[in-house]
Amino acid sequence: MNDAFISYSRRDTDFVRQLFEKLQADGRTVWVDWQGIDYSTKWWEEICEGIETSENFILVITPEALKSEYCNREIEHARKHNKRIIPVIYLPIETEDGKLHPDIIAGWFNQSWEDLARDNWEYLKTVQYLEFLQDTIDKAFAELIETIDKDPQYIKMHTRLLLWIREWEKSGRNPSYLLRSDDLLSAEKWLAEAGDEDPQPTDMHRTYIAESRKAENELKRLADEQERRTRRLRRASMTLVLVIFLLLLVAAFAGITTINSQNARATVEAESTFFAIQKDRVATLASGGVIIPLAQNTITPEAFIATLTQVAKLNTWQPVIQEFDGVEMVHVPAGCFYMGGSFDYNEITANPELLNEVCFDKPFWIDRYEVTNEQFERFNGVAENEPEFESASQPRTNVTWFEARDFCNMRDGNINDEWLDSVRLPTEAEWEYAARGPDSLTFPWGNRYKDHAAVSFVYDAGVGMSSVGTRPEGKSWVDAYDMAGNAAEWVNTIYDDRGTPRIESRYPYRIDDGREDLERSGTWVERVVRGGSVESLDYAFFRAADKSHLTQSFNSRTIGFRCARSN
Questions:
Q1: For 48-63, b where at least 16 C-beta lie within 10 A, e where not — what string?
Q2: Measured between alpha carbons, how far is 546 from 534 in angstroms, rounded to an integer?
Q3: Measured distance CA(113)–CA(440) in Å, rounded
Q4: 68-100 confidence digits (pLDDT tens)
Q5: pLDDT single digits (tens) 505-553
Q6: Which of 41, 253, 359, 544 could potentially form a cystine with 436 if both were Cys, beta carbons 3.0 to 4.6 Å apart?
Q7: What is residue 565's DSSP assignment?
Q8: CA neighbor of 281 nearest in space, from 216, 336, 344
Q9: Which residues contact residue 356 at a Cβ distance below 8 angstroms, ignoring those fewer than 6 apart?
């Protein structure tokens, strides 16, 4: 955000430059269009963005400014967004009797924007001016700073909400761009206390906050329902296991005939209970609290009992941490989970392939932390671009997928080994399982967003890329840190390659369909990126199921990686 946007006529550039430099010297950030390029859609979009992202709108009033179509369009946009307008008079615009100079009015005559100019002038007459005439410039500048600094928290929230509204509108009003948790409470408090503040909240502010509250209530309802289902599932699972155990004990003291008879009854009872519990299990494991009932039994009761036993064991998993060549890795046990998901109930109902069960019959290891600058240098990592965040303990970013792949493959000297036996980038299935576990949690830490569990400047004002491992409350079930926020992470998996044969990262996930090809080349090969980053705009991007994709030769200051290895 900027402290101010300056609207002016090009003929007044010399004065505006002086004003700009004076504001900068006072530590203010100012948006000014110096280019003076021809009117175009792109140029106007940039102007609008400058107005919306600035806390104050400074209008340098001169006869030429009031006769300028561009200035009048800028005033209109500022008024539309209820920006605080600060009129600065640099040259006289009125006659001796206090009326607007006829030359200005004549400049509006027969213009397509004449009505707009007249309406702007009626509005400007109601706003207090600051006179920047030569003999009052120092006094006027002090008054300007005083005006800019008035109600700073109120103005900052007014502008910050406009920025979020802008992103929400650009996304087609995607619910993931709505306010959540503390941000929503702060916005509601701001709106309730607006009173007679100047500038007033816009209708856009009110609509955005109302839609956010509606979405938050729905998410809470789904989360509460999921929590109730989880409790029912655990109670029913324990009951079922106890019933079977008792029946087996009884059978041990009976004859062969009695055993067969009781086992037959136990099987019927287990199958009946199985249907009810299995439906609840699938619903509970659905990402984001979405309820997906299972239509029919798909495994035998005996196998289901084994599955419950495995899940119970994994739910009590105690992290295993081991150093390999001085790098801490965590052990991820064999098991199953539901991969994929969405916050949108209708989306998953219409596209059940968004959820699919993925099983690992062998354990594997994954880095406890994102690869740091220190590690990258110690293992002689090679990257074309220097890291933007240079602390030894910060994630190594600004690397392409190729550079991340090569670093992992050479980290323990096994670059010539078979893929599954070497240190490597994790597959997206491995990454997601390590993040969410056998209960297919929405986030690495649970099913509800938790403030300050992820490193994110949207939810922690002023936070930047942090040293790895600074958020223990956000670690996953295997003790892996920063799998939400901080640096987003390359994984091995191809998202899309339009070559021959075409490869797409579709569900159900399959490791043998070409998507894990290490050598796939081509300009448009896209690889999956996981985990969201410090600059992600909404906590929906921190879901363990969320994925993005970029061409494998791309690099970014917010994208890093971690390595994996087979057991």
A1: bebbbbbbbbbbbbbb
A2: 15
A3: 58
A4: 998 999 999 999 999 999 999 888 888 877 788
A5: 888 888 888 899 888 887 778 999 999 999 887 778 899 998 888 899 9
A6: 544
A7: E
A8: 336
A9: 338, 339, 340, 507, 508, 509
